[in-house]
Structure formats: structure tokens, C-alpha cells
């Protein structure tokens, strides 16, 4: 029996499932949720090893997708639209391949259905491990430790949202040990069978996660896909340009 994911269900109407990326939680797509909840039922989830969901030594797209499908079945939701960012985009694509008949539409924020070769998070893991080892007692101390490893303040602030008080020191809500051990699984991707679902890939113009060279792999797996580029924004496009991202999503949903 699999464990159930932590989730938040709001609003009424057609269900939109919001799936966060690596090191995130269900609040990450909160800017989208707060807008979409006016017209839709919005299901925000913590993926395994993140937020308040269970920790597991297993962390791969098959398992993460099955977790979400099990939750959707538990909630008796049999028709829904998926919106996923980064790692969550891959989870959404995997769900679309496993539960094709139930997925109305699919929105993938700055992620391609490809196996990435570059390890982008080694400095992040170094910072996370340092905070764990040094057992900091204040958020400021933890941010100072992260700053020794992570250059971008925005990334440090984002990560610090997952700090919580564990006894007399701060700890991470996400499962650093498992995510580090499974990092090759997070980069990986096994191509899925062609899926007819209407799909939108939204790219941050300044991000290099979605590339022109990925187009053939996207078309092979999601033949009914189109793309939209948001100018002057990077990988965190939904946080940097929420109004524009929402406009694009709403136009696609309508």
C-alpha cells in the first residue's frame, strides 16, 4: 500500500493539478493557484521526499507519477489538467503517459522530456549538506552557510522556505539524502509512447532547460504540443513573470 501525498484542494470546477519542482513544495506554484482557483478546482501537492509528504529511498518518475495518480483516485478525480514545473513537469508528462484518458490538457513549465547530462545542483547539495551538518539554529545562520556554496540569493531564499525547527536546530523538509542519492534519476528520462493530449511547453527565454534541439524528442512523445516563450525570464518563470505565465496558461485552457 503506497503512502498518500500531502495536498491542498481548493475551488470548484474542472480540476487543475499543480506539481512543483526539485526542492519545492505545494506553495511554489501558489501564485498560479491563487489566480486559477477563481475558475477551477486546484489540487496542489507535495511530491514524495518534499514538503510534508512521506520520505522514501526511491525517487524516480514512475514512482512519483504513481503517487499522484493514487491521490487523484483517492479523491475520485477522473478528469484533470496537469501543470508541472521543472522536475514536476517530468512528473506531469509521466502521468500523462500512464493515465492518458484522464488528462484533459498538459502544461509543462521549462522542462523537456529528455535525459539531461549536466549536473546543475552540486553546489546546492553542498550547501544543503553543510546546513544539515552544522545544525544551525537561526534562518540567518543557515542562509550564511548556503551563501558559501550558492551564488544566487533568489535560490538561497527559495531553499530556505523549506527550513523548519527540528528540536533545537533547523532541518530541511525535503529528503536531502534521498534526492542526492537519486539525482541521476531526476536528470534521467525514458521516452514515453506518443501521447495525443493537447500540450503546452512554456519556456523561459533565458533558461537553457528547453532547447531547439529537444524539438524532435518533444514531437515524438507529444505530437499535439505547442510552445510559448516568455521573454526576459529564466527557469523560475512562474515566479518571475506570473502574470504573463498565467495569461498564456489561461489562453491555452480556454
Automatic annotation (TrEMBL):
This is Esterase. Residues 15-242 form the AB hydrolase-1 domain. The keyword Transport does not apply. Pfam families: Abhydrolase_1 (PF00561). Keywords: Hydrolase. One of its GO terms (molecular function) is hydrolase activity. It comes from Vibrio xiamenensis.
Amino acid at each position: 500500500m503506497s503512502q498518500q501525498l500531502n495536498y491542498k484542494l481548493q475551488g470548484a470546477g474542472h480540476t487543475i493539478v499543480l506539481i512543483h519542482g526539485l526542492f519545492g513544495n505545494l506553495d511554489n506554484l501558489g501564485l498560479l493557484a491563487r489566480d486559477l482557483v477563481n475558475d477551477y478546482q486546484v489540487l496542489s501537492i507535495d511530491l514524495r521526499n518534499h514538503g510534508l509528504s512521506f520520505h522514501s529511498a526511491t525517487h524516480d518518475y514512475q514512482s512519483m507519477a504513481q503517487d499522484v495518480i493514487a491521490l487523484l483516485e483517492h479523491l475520485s478525480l477522473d478528469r484533470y489538467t496537469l501543470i508541472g514545473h521543472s522536475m514536476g513537469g517530468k512528473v506531469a508528462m509521466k502521468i500523462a503517459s500512464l493515465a492518458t484518458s484522464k488528462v484533459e490538457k498538459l502544461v509543462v513549465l521549462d522542462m523537456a522530456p529528455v535525459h539531461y547530462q549536466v549536473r546543475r545542483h552540486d553546489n546546492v547539495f553542498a550547501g544543503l549538506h553543510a546546513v544539515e551538518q552544522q545544525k544551525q539554529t537561526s534562518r540567518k545562520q543557515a542562509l550564511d552557510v548556503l551563501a558559501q556554496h550558492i551564488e544566487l540569493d533568489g535560490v538561497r531564499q527559495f531553499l530556505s522556505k523549506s527550513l523548519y525547527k527540528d528540536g533545537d536546530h533547523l532541518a530541511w523538509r525535503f529528503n536531502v539524502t534521498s534526492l542526492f542519492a537519486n539525482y541521476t534519476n531526476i536528470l534521467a528520462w525514458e521516452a514515453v509512447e506518443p501521447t495525443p493530449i493537447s500540450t503546452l511547453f512554456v519556456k523561459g527565454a533565458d533558461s537553457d532547460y528547453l532547447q531547439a534541439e529537444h524539438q524532435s524528442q518533444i514531437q515524438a512523445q507529444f505530437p499535439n504540443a505547442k510552445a510559448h516563450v516568455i521573454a526576459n525570464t529564466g527557469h523560475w518563470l512562474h515566479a518571475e513573470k506570473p502574470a504573463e505565465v498565467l495569461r498564456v496558461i489561461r489562453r491555452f485552457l480556454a
